[in-house]
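Appendix B.2, paired examples.
Example (i):
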Amino acid sequence: MIKLFVCDIDFTLLDAYSGGLPSRNIDAMIRLQASGVKVVLASGRVESGILPIVKQLRMDEFGGYVASSNGTRIIETLRLTPLKENLIPVEDLLEMYHHAIKLGLHFSVEQGDTVYTNGFDDELAYDRDVVKLNFNVCDDLSEHLKQGAPKCAVTVDRGQKREEIMAFCETFKDRFEIVNSMGGFIDIMRKGSSKGHAIEFLCSHLHLSHDEVAAIGDSTNDLEMLALAGIGACVANAREEVKAIAKHHVASAQEGGVAEFIDIVLSLNKRTAM
């Protein structure tokens, strides 16, 4: 019996082209929650970029969870109460920022309700135009880094500065969790923060086994959670590494593949209950 449904957002739940939420997925998510299954939105997005989707899916009525910034911060959706948070200290943010500058990379980090960055590119344009985050492009980020953050990111226009990106990752890979959430977008979190760790935490919090968890995603930052879940699925537009480990392959994000997987889960639960 599946009791927890973990879903990636961008290029999985949302249309990969417009960033819109297919009505088929909305209807299926509401049916799933009405059946008693709790939903977790697990995303590389910061929390403010997820909360509008929480309302669209009525998770603020049914109760569920958000694992934002690749599992760094976990909240429940009825009262928006934080259950877990693992922030990068300011001194580490400053160190990574200065290293990114040396390599000619764009560095971005959320402070309050604003994302500060030293440069803009195609990857950040997605967060501005689709996720609707508030950006402040400034010459010196160090003036604005006043508090710890769930994650930071280095970005470039897709296909550019690959050697510099690899050099940055090599420098910090032993101290931080580093994932490629999409294209030229590299997310950095503290050790012990990932979508997989979020599943582990919620299973412990809710006294569930991994066999009671279903998960669906499309990118390499979803690999760990798909491996942990009792049932894992990927959308048709997923990366090849994700397709290799997913038990179920469903339609693309644009075609409402999440709804297809929800139907599989509901059918499984119905058979199990007999």
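Example (ii):
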Amino acid sequence: MNMLNTIYETGHDLHVANYVAYLHTDKKLYEDEAHKVQAKKADVEKAFKLGRLIVVAADKTYLPVALMAAGVVVTDGTTATTCTMAADEA
């Protein structure tokens, strides 16, 4: 019997309701409200796949609708925006 791939939460994720990324005017995601530390690709992808990623902009809060190689896509119902993240360190 074939089944969909399973994504398990870890003990680290167990009591986390959501992961918040902050969207700057440069369309990059940041870990902090001051927009000093760009969000890492692996962290954003994991939060998205767990269904717990929230993107906060200056005047809106989004639930991302798609995960792409370039980033996550958010929309306000009229305009789709691709939010980029920092490449993971090797």
